[in-house]
Amino acid sequence: MQERGVAVDHSTLNRQVLKYAPEIDKRIRPFLKPTNDPWRVDETYIKIRGKWRYLYRAVDSEGNMLDFMLSAKRDGKAAARFFRKVLGAKHTQTPRVITVDKNAAYPVAVEELKQDQILKAQTKLRQSKYLNNVLEQDHRNIKRIVKPMIGF
């Protein structure tokens, strides 16, 4: 815009992003590559407006991001809400195996989803401290960006 002699403030760009990002997201989702069977799910904490929030993220076996969600709490309800969000996306299929860390909220959430028949009964929940290293290492990139900013 500067090359064309138009002065644009950063708040103008932010308004455009807030206006058009949901529409772009809605139109792009159907064209995303379908996911693989095994999923890896993990959460990390980040500071947003001075308050600590939990960032839930899910990736497939190839490391492709399925979805993410911010939550104020790290409990079974938040985990179930995140799983519902990911399973409701058009590009995801029901996973065969979900690998999570030792957080006690995940078994509660998975059982709730199985009872509501949102998740298949054959879906296994694998709790392992070390099998989520792909996702755990990816948290480093988020922390590296957030730390100098002292949060979002």
Please describe what this structure looks like.
Involved in the transposition of the insertion sequence. Residues 26-152 form the Integrase catalytic domain. Keywords: DNA recombination, DNA-binding, Transposition. GO terms for molecular function: DNA binding. Pfam families: DDE_Tnp_IS240. This protein has four helices and five strands. It is of the alpha/beta class and 152 residues long. The protein has a single domain (34-149), classed as Nucleotidyltransferase, domain 5. It has a five-stranded mixed beta sheet, sandwiched between helices. Strand 4 (97-100), helix 3 (105-115) and strand 5 (124-127) form a beta-alpha-beta unit. Helix 2 (76-88) crosses helix 3 (105-115). The two termini are 27 Å apart. The mean pLDDT is 85.
Question: How many individual domains?
Answer: 1
Oligomer: single chain
Structural class: alpha/beta
Largest sheet: 5 strands, mixed
CATH topology: Nucleotidyltransferase, domain 5
Strands, count: 5
Shape: globular
**CATH homologous superfamily descriptor:** Ribonuclease H-like superfamily/Ribonuclease H
CATH architecture: 2-Layer Sandwich
Please work out how many helical segments DSSP would assign: 4
Helix content: 25-40%
Compact description:
GO terms for molecular function: DNA binding. The chain is α/β, with parallel strands linked by helices. The chain is built from four helices and five strands; from the N terminus they run H-E-E-E-H-E-H-E-H.
Write the layout of secondary structure elements.
Layout: H1 10-28, E1 39-48, E2 51-60, E3 65-71, H2 76-88, E4 97-100, H3 105-115, E5 124-127, H4 133-149
Parallel strand pairs: 1-4, 4-5
Antiparallel strand pairs: 1-2, 2-3
